[in-house]
Write a structure and sequence with these properties.
heterodimer, A: alpha/beta, eight-stranded mixed sheet, 14 strands, about 20% strand, B: mainly alpha, about 35% helix, about 0% strand
Chain lengths: ~270, ~160
């Protein structure tokens, strides 16, 4: 089936999974900003959820359930991984956008927020991808989801997995198993937003990469290609990219971060 | 309730189906008494049956079946008393969940909005609610403050 003919709707929703690095290193400053990376990431996800919800409002301000969202945090407690929803949504995994809009944690400058920033412990990224795989597998098997847009998994991290195994083989294996899951419209997409402490020029949606940073190379390799629709949206947002570009951003600024999350969210 | 009573799309709850059944039974009796034998009877009967079948089809969807299932003899009792499927199914969202809240047990439940212990009532209001307290995402203590950590994802946790 051709994904170009697919319309995301309340009967054919799309699953978005955000993996958030909550390890201790996320307390480092975000670029030249005075606040921590964890704050910027939480802000970007809150902003994106809000924009996704607004896109789903129709008619009498009812939020249509076109998207279902899971937010998985890793590194908040030793090597543990857990759902990052809080408040009334605590311990929920997949929540429909209409229910998400029903239960914001609070408001910030008149906008609802759902996710709070944390930076605590290790970086169990492999385990986070394992959780994402199990969740996506269940989601695809549920109801008519095989006829839906394949899930989009967006991992936001600043560092190296502490449970990646020898030469990160465990991490690579887990991500590849996740990417092998598919609906009738294609495979699960895995995108990476990499916020590095090491500095360096920002790299946005590259189709190839030349770097001495093994971690950068790894996250680039693990990222799926942007599909045709995403490339179109990226071009609309003035990113000059072509088919073959990967869903990978290195050291993007806050604007890039939000744009990336929007580009990764099917329209 | 009764938002699109003549549509065959979507899902409805038991209550709406039972009420529809009562409405149909009551109305058909009245029509039968008043205009039986006249052409008007047929004119009135068609929308009434359409209404009953449309509501029946949506209730079938709610229990996870095709609308044609309502033609099975005695299946109407299952439609009246059977539980709907939780979460989203191929016919749409659970009508119990749409516009409702999670109850205090973490389950979907009713349309009574739960109060947040911190005073926030939930429900985005288009940014006009100046009474909502802004805890300030940038002002909280970033260290881990909650002792009741959740567990990892387990099969079946999808919409728990």
């Amino acid at each position: 089936m051709d994904i170009r003919n697919l319309t995301i709707s309340s009967t054919n929703p799309c699953l978005l999974v955000y993996l958030i690095d909550q390890s201790g290193s996320m307390d480092g400053k975000f670029g030249n900003a005075s606040h921590a990376k964890a704050i910027e990431v939480a802000n970007a996800i809150n902003e994106t959820i809000y924009e996704v919800g607004l896109r789903c409002i129709e008619g009498s301000e009812q939020v249509k359930n076109r998207f279902e969202i899971a937010v998985i945090g890793y590194g908040k407690d030793e090597d543990h991984v857990q759902s990052a929803w809080e408040g009334q949504l605590k311990n929920k995994w997949v929540v429909s956008i209409n229910n998400i809009f029903d239960f914001p944690l609070s408001q910030d400058n008149g906008k609802p927020i759902w996710i709070r920033p944390y930076h605590v412990s290790n970086t169990p990224m492999t385990k986070a991808f394992l959780n994402a795989r199990k969740l996506c597998d269940d989601w695809i098997s549920w109801g008519n989801h095989r006829d839906c847009h394949p899930p989009i998994v967006i991992n936001i991290t600043d560092g190296e997995a502490t449970d990646g195994g020898r030469n990160f083989s465990d991490l690579i294996g887990e991500v590849n198993r996740l990417k092998a899951l598919r609906t009738n419209y294609g495979n699960v997409n895995v995108f990476n937003i990499h916020i590095s402490d090491k500095g360096g020029d920002r790299i946005l949606f590259p189709s190839s990469i030349f770097s001495n940073d093994s971690n950068q190379n790894l996250l680039f390799d693990l990222s799926s290609n942007l599909d045709e629709n995403m490339v179109r949206i990226a071009n609309q947002k003035n990113y000059n990219i072509n088919l073959g570009a990967k869903g990978y951003v290195f050291n993007g600024n806050a604007y890039d971060l939000i744009n990336f999350l929007n580009i990764g969210t099917p329209q | 309730m009764f938002k699109q009573p003549f549509s065959f799309e979507g899902r409805i709850r038991r209550t709406e189906y039972c009420l529809s059944f009562l409405i149909y039974s009551f109305t058909s009796q009245i029509v039968l008494v008043l205009v039986a034998g006249s052409p008007v009877f047929l004119l009135l009967l068609v929308p009434m049956i359409w209404f009953l079948w449309a509501q029946g089809a949506k209730r079938c969807h709610d229990v996870g079946n095709n609308g044609w299932f309502q033609l099975i003899p005695f299946y109407v009792f299952w439609l009246m008393f059977g539980d709907g499927q939780r979460g989203v199914n191929e016919y749409g969202s659970n009508p119990k969940e749409v516009g409702s809240n999670y109850n205090s047990n973490g389950n979907y439940g009713n349309n009574t909005r739960q109060s947040d212990p911190n005073g926030y009532n939930g429900g985005y209001d288009g940014g006009h609610n100046v009474g909502g307290q802004n805890s300030g995402s940038n002002k909280i203590d970033f260290s881990k403050t909650q002792s009741d950590e959740g567990s990892e994802y387990k099969k079946g946790d999808l919409y728990k």
